[in-house]
Amino acid sequence: MDTLISLSEVTKRYDGGGHPAVDDVSLEVAAGEAIAIMGPSGSGKSTLLNLIAGLDRPTSGTVTVAGERVDTLSETGVARFRRRHIGMIFQFFNLLDDLTVEDNVLMPAQLGGTPRAQARGRAAELLSALRIDKHRNAYPGRLSGGERQRVAIARALVNRPSLLLADEPTGALDSATGEEIGELLLDLNRSGQTLVLVTHNPDLAAHFASRMVEIVDGRIASDATGWTAGRAAAGRHAEVQP
Amino acid sequence: MRRGPVARAVRGGVTRRRVQTVVIGLVLLVSTAASVLALALVVDSRSPFDHAFAAQRGADVAATVDAARATHAELAATKRLSQVATAAGPFPEVAVTGRPFGGPVKIPLTLAGRSSPGGGIDDLTLQSGHWATKPGQMVLDSSPGPGEIYEVPIGTKITLTGLPGKPALTVVGLASSVTGTAGGWVTPGEIARLRPHGAPDLAQMLYRFRSAATSADLRAAEKAVSAALPAGTLTATQSYLSVRAQEKSGIAPFVPFLVAFGVIGLVMSVLIVANVVSGAVVSGYRRIGILKSIGFTPGQVIAAYAGQVSVPAVVGCLGGVVLGNVLAIPLLAQTANAFGVGALGVPVWVDVTVAAVMCALVGLAALGPSLRAGRLSAVQAIALGRAPRTGRGYTAHRLAGRVWLPRPLTIGLAAPFARPARTSLTLAAVLLGSIAVTFAVGLSTSLSRVVTGLSHTTTEQVQVQVPTSGPQGLVRKHGGSVVPVRHGAFHPPSAATVERTMTAALHAMPGTRRSVAEMDSEVTMQGMSQRVELTAFDGNASWAGYEMISGHW
């Protein structure tokens, strides 16, 4: 399979000095993979995800995603790169509270230059598939945590990104809602969506990822492949096309 | 740059963050209004007379001429002299004495006949009421005369003494002349009716000269005018320089305070706007991070934030200019009254400058944090939106923690050190506010002392009105109740008798160490359109608080 993500000897050190948050990490992820990055709090897993997304820059090493050297792009270049290739889900949703659900979903499409009618059609399709279309004109503040995360997923998928990054996507949700969101991500991966999931929850990782990378003190401690994602998947499935 | 998402982000920020929008709008509204007021005050305080003189096209010289000695053509010919830039007149003029309400108070007045308040020279400012349009009406000078404490409202009938039948004029308007060319104005035809029998046929000519900067210039121009007229025609002149000198001496004590208040108001407005706007951007760091994470470029982030702050700022700014002008009308009218000049207004350049500076200030205040936010990575922006940069204010927190105070209090005390720039702005605004309060209290105290010093409180003033023409007199103590004193058959006492009796009575009062008689009167002088206050003493009154500047009693 084609390599979608390639990290080579990546180190990230913050201003304060001390131990690097990410220390000499090399990693390759193939297109269509569902990989879980695990580790305790402060181990550097979120930093690694931010480096892949171009939200942060490595102190040294190279980050290549979809054939582009993310670490060398300008701020404007990396913003355009994100529009084209990256969909991102955060633990605390990071929705724009002053825009409606539909406007939140439409925003990346408009940034990407998708014609308005086409963007609205895609947003409607996603909101319907994620069963939040009745909230399209609501503001995020009025939604439950699970509904907000669905909005965030719709926003992440609206540009049909080649890579979906999820940073503790169930961390702020109750277990039942977390399970639902996990199922959604699993369905997406089954449909061919490459998924990088950051979590400190081994059960979640085991359940939804086919590969688990464990990070400790910024270094890769283990990289286990061969998991069968969705072993215990059950319940309601949403048909979401990436 | 795609404008759709930016516009959507701006609209969302403006409409959903209502508190921030309203706060920015209100701060700009109030600050702009205050700045317009303050700058107008500063500008008008610098040379109020000159501003009013230019605005009202004041006369360099108001000349009184004997119209019986020169023809209209000869007077008109003076307008074509090389020294004369422009001239107006002749306006018939007469000196009269009026009694408001037909009462005992006498007002000497120089009346000029003018058909309208406007003109190329001495454009009169009609403060209230309307212009005199028919006989029996007059417009009174609204500027208080020296020492004048009474007001004559519109509708008052002023009975003119010394004229057959004692005609009365009804005050229909109040107006002011920047150089005080007359104490009142009537229709031109009215003057002949009001001229006492045997009084000279006087008229007023108003001139603006090509060179009028110095007294020598004016003297030379007056000489040319006089030479162009038959001998003895020009009876008196009043130059704008003497009026200006008088005005300047009167306003000198107030100017430093007004300028100081104006400058403090301006600086405080600038600091508050910078503080609020930069605070709004800093508080939006997390949102900036989110925008970047979904694909906003740094340029789009800056545009979104500049727009979000600019929309309420520009609305507030424009509203502030309007509000400032509305508030300036009564304030500058009071200032003009205090300065004794006709009218003061907000110059257009003040409106334009304040609006432009405030908008630029908002842009600058927003630009710094926006640029910083644009340069930050999305992760840093989100992190900074939650808490200040790591290590900021750490020393202050550590030191405050050692102080024997409740920990929540010391955390609060150390918090401002985490954002030193904003704290400095806030401190500067508070400092200037304190200075303004100190100034205000100091001004009030200082002026109270001046008033106390001038009020001759070391003496007890007893006002006595000597009955001269009626069966009833009034004796009243200053500030006390009026006590009517009835007489039997009225025999006006001689002045010497009155003085002797009063002096004896005063000295018979326990506690009286010495006394001095004082009499106030107002007179008109030919060539002086304004009344002249005359105070007579029957001896040396320096012990009563009257400072002798030069000469002797």
Key descriptive features of the protein:
heterodimer; A: 242 residues; alpha/beta; six-stranded mixed sheet; four-stranded antiparallel sheet; 7 helices; 10 strands; globular; B: 553 residues; alpha+beta; six-stranded mixed barrel; three-stranded antiparallel sheet; 19% strand; elongated
Radius of gyration of chain B: 33 Å
Radius of gyration of chain A, rounded? Answer: 17 Å
Biggest interface: A-B, 31 and 32 residues
Give the strand order of the largest sheet of chain B, numbering strands 1, 2, ... along the chain: 2-3-8-5-7-6
Structural class of chain B: alpha+beta
How would the global form of chain A be characterised?
globular
Number of strands of chain B: 15
Can you tell me the residue ranges of chain A where pLDDT is under 50 for at least 5 consecutive residues?
229-238
Morphology of chain B: elongated
Give the beta-strand count of chain A: 10
Largest sheet of chain A: 6 strands, mixed
Largest sheet of chain B: 6 strands, mixed, barrel
Distance between the termini of chain B: 85 Å
Q: Number of DSSP helices of chain B?
A: 16
Counting copies of identical and different chains, the oligomeric state is: heterodimer
Rounded mean pLDDT score of chain A = 84
Mean pLDDT metric of chain B: 74
